[in-house]
Amino acid sequence: QVQLVESGGGLVKPGGSLRLSCAASGFTFSDYYMSWIRQAPRKGLEWVSYISHTGGTIYYADSVKGRFTISRDNAKNSLYLQMNSLRAEDTAVYYCARDLHGSSGYGDNWGQGTLVTVSS
Amino acid sequence: EIVLTQSPATLSLSPGERATLSCRASQSVRSYLAWYQQKPGQAPRLLIYDTSNRATDIPARFSGSGSGTDFTLTISSLEPEDFAVYYCQQRSNWPYTFGQGTKLEI
To answer: Which of A26, A63, B20, B101 is the most buried (most CB within 10 A)?
Structure first.
């Protein structure tokens, strides 16, 4: 079955960096667009970044543009999010999500999430 | 950015009752709207996509309707496991956005 497992979250000081990883299994990773979606504590959902199956198309939310970089390694069935210049408002649970099909823009399978806390 | 406004914020109902949740978009999203269910401590779960298509393994008591700017998620007869937070999401324009959620409580 489809499994997405995020890792790399933790406590970091403002201005610091973290790299999140998402290990995928149970499907042909290279066939699917993937996303990072976050949820601040007791808040709603924000679509952070989106990458095509080849990595040739990438989108970022304005709130993270220039600070975050999404990437993927299809040989390793892995998705990444490099987060630099972190701010308190980046504190959230970060989910990786698989696209429903093609470039549908809907997340049909999600990981359990990894918590990023930005605090001094 | 397309803003999605969900109503009501909280809906109090009993098992067996019918639930009607609304989502209004600040501009047309055509039919590119989804609904998700989230329970405490869990990731969201896709219920409905493209306004009215049920995702895999979603029970038939969940249905979606609407077009343009006004959309509805209906749960025909509430089961105990349906009490959760529901989000709508549009994929018409980037950035894809979510509504603020409707909490369905007993």
So the answer is: B101
Closest Cα in chain B to A93: B43
What is the model's pLDDT at position A67? 98
Q: Is A31 helix (H, G, I), strand (E, B) or coil?
A: helix
Who contacts A112 (Cβ-Cβ below 8 Å, separation ≥6)?
A: A5, A6, A95, B43
CB B9 within 8 A of CB B105: no
The reported pLDDT for the residue numbered A41 is: 86
A86 close to A16: Cβ distance less than 8 angstroms: yes
State pLDDT tens for residues B12-49: 999 999 999 999 999 999 999 999 999 999 999 999 99
3-state DSSP call for residue A29?
Answer: helix
- Residue B95 touches partner A, C-beta closer than 8 Å: yes
Question: Can you give the pLDDT at residue A108?
Answer: 94
Between vectors from CA A74 to CA A47 and to CA A97, what angle results, nearest 5°? Answer: 25
Nearest CA in chain B to A94: B43
pLDDT above 80 (res A102): no
| Tokens, residue B31 | 């039919």
Residue B19's identity, in one-letter code, is A
Q: Which of residues 13-32 of B touch A (CB under 8 A)?
A: 32
Q: What is the mean pLDDT of chain A?
A: 96
Considering CB atoms only, which of B49, B94, B95 is closest to A106?
B49
